[in-house]
Amino acid sequence: MRIATYNVNGVNGRLPVLLRWLAEEAPDVVCLQELKAPQDRFPEQAITDAGYGAIWQGQKSWNGVAILARGQVPEETRRGLPGDPDDIQSRYIEAAIDGVLVAGLYLPNGNPKPGPKFDYKLAWIERLIDHAATLATLDAPVVLAGDYNIMPTDLDVYKPERWLDDALFAPEARAGFARLIDQGWVDALRALHPGETIYTFWDYFRRAFDRDAGLRIDHLLLNPPAAVRLETAGVDRAVRGWEKSSDHAPTWITLGTRPKRRRRA
């Protein structure tokens, strides 16, 4: 099973790019972020015509998350992150697909900091940690996929010294990510490519993509039953260079049907 996360940065404006990528790569499951469309403006028919069922939570102008599944409609299990009944931002959705629980999330950016947006980011991280603690212990494989708006380490950011005052690289945010890992979650991309410089986002400004001045902020975290099935992980970097593409590239993993055999030392 190939599971991808993709911050599409406007599902209607980037629809040709999304459909081209779906046709070329045929992922089994896709978590989308930043739909930037109200609930009734999600391009359901175009997604259906591409061979995918979908569930989504839209929001006018901002945010918005969706889960697509090839050849079927995901079985929704949760809409919205628990812990704050007054939170109206569309940032979390969860579904069961072929025995795997997939959560699609769009963690707040948090800039500028300090301020209310950064406070909201930190509070959202706490809610995610609380909910993830339950998911981590499930016997079934679970994948937490999305745009985390966090660079976990210096390796995940071009020229880290320039990001010291940014909410995406704040010590509090990175500590929150580390606490998720301490629950038993595995950072799939880093697990298979521990020392490589790999980015998932390149700004539109200052020719960032051409200079490879990027960030790794899109992550797929796996609970133990998912981690033992992890086979490959990567980034469809070329998509970022397509015309009118998002500033993110699709990031993906493949899970085998059985636990992967580990070589004996």
Automatic annotation (TrEMBL):
User: Where does the entry annotate site (Interaction with DNA substrate)?
Assistant: H248
Instruction: Show which residues form the site (Transition state stabilizer).
Output: N149
InterPro entries given in the database record: AP_endonuc_1, AP_endonuclease_F1_BS, Endo/exonu/phosph_ase_sf, Endo/exonuclease/phosphatase, ExoIII-like
EC top class, as a word: hydrolase
- Kindly list the positions annotated as binding Mg(2+): N7, E34, D147, N149, D247, H248
Alphabetically sorted, this entry's keywords are: Hydrolase, Magnesium, Manganese, Metal-binding
Q: Where is this site: Important for catalytic activity?
A: D218
What one GO molecular function would you report for this record? DNA binding
GO biological process terms held by the UniProt record? DNA repair
Tell me yes or no: is S-adenosyl-L-methionine among this UniProt entry's keywords.
no
Q: Which CDD domains match?
A: ExoIII-like_AP-endo
Q: List, for all copies, the residue spans of the domain called Endonuclease/exonuclease/phosphatase.
A: 4-248
The cofactor named in the record is: Mg(2+); Mn(2+)
**What PROSITE patterns has UniProt attached to this entry?**
AP_NUCLEASE_F1_1, AP_NUCLEASE_F1_4
Catalytic machinery residues: Y106, D147 (proton donor/acceptor), H248 (proton acceptor)
Q: In the Enzyme Commission scheme, what number(s) does this protein have?
A: 3.1.11.2
Question: Which family, according to the similarity comment?
Answer: Belongs to the DNA repair enzymes AP/ExoA family.
Which NCBIfam families does the record cross-reference, listed alphabetically? exoDNase_III, xth
* Protein name from the UniProt record: Exodeoxyribonuclease III
